[in-house]
Structure formats: C-alpha cells, structure tokens
Hints:
Blueprint: H1 11-18, H2 23-44, E1 47-58, E2 67-72, H3 74-77, H4 87-92
Antiparallel strand pairs: 1-2
Amino acid sequence: MIISKGENVPITLNQCLLRKIPENQNKRLQPVKISVVDHYYNFCLPHASLRQPLPQSVPTNGSGSAKIWQSRTPAMAAGLTDHVWSLRAVLLFRVPPWSQP
C-alpha cells in the first residue's frame, strides 16, 4: 500500500522543502511540495517494516556482519519499482504524457 500526504516523513525534509520560499509563492507551490514529500516517502525512503529476508546472506566489506535483509520502499512493496530511488532520480524523472480516454 502506498502512503500519501507524507504525514510520517521526517520533519527535517518538510522543513527543507518549506524553507527559502517567499510567502506569496507558498500557496502556489503547496501541491508541488506535497508531491515531492509523497514521492520521497514512497520511492526513496526504505521502511524497516517492509524489509524482506534475503535467500542467502551477502558478506560485507570489512568486519561487519553479513547482510540478511533487503530494504524496501512502499513503492517496491506495491510492485511499482524494483529498486530504491535517489531523490535526484525522482526529481529528474520525466512523466510520460497521459492520454485521456
């Protein structure tokens, strides 16, 4: 299930997005800011409750313990993507035109 409205996104991200925007542009850009927060939450932020065990543990470089879990985002759990996205990749993604029926 994909979460919307970003209520559980860390407050630091919300503060980053709301900062440095003049007050007169704040209302105009509100849907854009909410969309960025939603996409960050669903595509970039792995959730511990969605992780899945790996079929075989993967050794780490150095003296750390082996990796036994695969991190997953809500979009990965919903089957929309197969990897964790970077915020840069989300912001640069071009959405194809939507053909209305």
